[in-house]
Amino acid sequence: MNAEFARFAAAQAQTDRQAFNRFLASKGLNVADAVSKERAKQEFMSLTPLLDDGVAGVAHQALAGAVGPPVTSITSTVWKRVDMTHGGIPCVGTWAEYGAWHLMLAQAVAAKGEGIAYSPSVNRDGHRCNASTVQMTALILDDDGTGDWFTLWAVLMSLGLAALGHRSGGHREGLPKWRMVFPLAAPFDTSTPESVLAWRSAYASARTVFGALAGLVGPGFDPATDGPHHPWYPGSRRSLADSPREVLQTHGATLNLAALLARLPPPLLHQGAVQREVGLSHSGLPPRGPLPASLEGDQAASLLELAFSEAGMLGRRLREGKLAVICPWNQSHTTPLPSGLEASSSTIIWPSTSAANLGGFSCAHSCGSPSVELVLDALPSDAVWRARQRHIGADRPGARFSPRIEIDPRLPLLPVHLNGLGH
Ligand SMILES: [Zn+2]
Asked: For 121, phi and psi rounded to 5 degrees?
């Protein structure tokens, strides 16, 4: 491996989804100490592993060699509300119609985590989970305040790549928050646990490429959005007082992900991701995804159970209502779970008897029994948000968060050609 490749690989490792936990471990910090943890987080966010000329050089060369044929259409699966995990609608439209759909929703009003959710994927039965996601049709990256998008747009324009960028709901002056969508030259197969791993690996590499080209600080684009099941929200404003979210779209070339990967160092897939996929696929859960039966049965799932489920870190059911989970601090364990192993019974959650039904957590490693809030803090924030929404709904069926989204009734819900149900 040449020196630039080594630096690229190092930057990727320093920005992956376990990087912050390893950073904490390297400082010998106790994760249960919220004050030191917050201080460490700020320090971590100010690191700049992606602002390295060698890394950017590898990234630019790889992207220049990954320019595919012109974009025509894009296939998505759309859920009318993010708390729906079934009933996804297959939608096919031209790239221009996809942009028009985003423009329409950019004017809509939706509270954080509410409104329409979609996935740039082909889904076999409309169930929002990895097992039902057959192919990915686009790469979407999420930036949450680690830099703005102008540098990246300049690179994309110079290479003639097609992209759709939009500000997210929480964007504000001085704290840019945005997403970028790159249509793929060919659908990426995610129909088996092994191919899901390949997608996560490809996602990690592409995230590093675009993060370096955008000149982002800290971890750059969010590393926790690499699952094919991840729901994406078009950018809608949070209230009528906000201006409509900005949407920019360019036509041009698709992203040839295979060509991009071929120009990068061999993929480094983090152990955490391997355990999640391979472990869950062998744990005897229903074939349609990591969703234990209790989530849909009479017994209300605890907030922790929903959060581990949304994060894809729930393992098998144990005795007495306990569930095995992947420890969010696995990388800090003296002996982290090696790849290929499922969640073991040394880290568990259990239902609680209190009315709040938050659940309990215990890890036989050094983690002990931190509070529910500390555990939630260590899980991907988006997964926790969805879990909280589902938890509210489960407790108070009559109080389901409505209306989800306010759209002028004269507008169609989706552009006609995007609406896969047909009219
Ligand atoms: Zn642990």
From this structure: -155, 165
What spacing in Å lies between the alpha carbon of 299 and ligand 1's midpoint? 27
Please tell me the total number of residues recorded for the chain in this structure: 423
What's the whole-model pTM score?
Answer: 0.71
Ligand 1 centre to CA of 14 (Å) is 21
Ligand 1 mean position, distance from CA 60 (Å): 39
Distance 310 CA to ligand 1 centre (A): 19
Spell out the per-residue pLDDT of the chain, length 423, in tens.
688 999 999 999 899 888 888 888 788 776 667 788 788 889 999 999 999 999 999 999 999 999 999 999 999 999 888 778 888 888 888 999 999 999 988 988 888 777 889 999 999 999 988 889 999 999 999 999 999 999 999 999 999 999 999 999 889 888 999 999 999 999 999 998 888 888 998 999 999 999 999 999 999 999 989 999 999 999 888 888 888 899 999 999 999 999 999 999 875 544 443 333 333 333 333 333 333 333 434 367 888 998 998 888 888 888 888 999 988 888 778 877 665 467 788 899 988 777 778 899 999 988 888 888 889 888 887 788 778 777 766 544 433 333 334 444 444 444 434 444 333
Q: Cis ω on the peptide bond leading into residue 403 (within 30° of 0)?
A: yes
Helical axes 193-214 vs 3-14, angle rounded to 10°: 100
CA of 42 to the centre of ligand 1 (A): 23
| C-alpha 82 to ligand 1 mean position (Å) | 30
Structure tokens at 31: 């994760």
Ligand 1 centroid to 300 CA: how many Å?
A: 25
Q: Which two tokens stand for residue 231?
A: 């729901």
Q: Which residues contact 349 (CB under 8 A, 6 or more apart)?
A: 302, 304, 305, 308, 322, 323, 325, 359, 360, 361, 362
- Helix, strand, coil percentages, rounded to 5, for the chain: 35, 20, 45
Question: 401 CA distance to ligand 1 centroid (A)?
Answer: 34
Residue 277 Cα, ligand 1 centroid: separation in angstroms? 18
Give distance in angstroms: CA of 367 to centre of ligand 1. Answer: 5
If you measure from the C-alpha of residue 379 to the centroid of ligand 1, how many angstroms do you get, rounded to a whole number? 13
CA of 164 relative to ligand 1 center, distance in Å: 39
Distance (angstroms) between ligand 1 centre and the Cα of 346 equals: 8
Q: What are the residue boundaries of the structural domains of the chain, listed by start? A: 45-267+411-418, 273-379
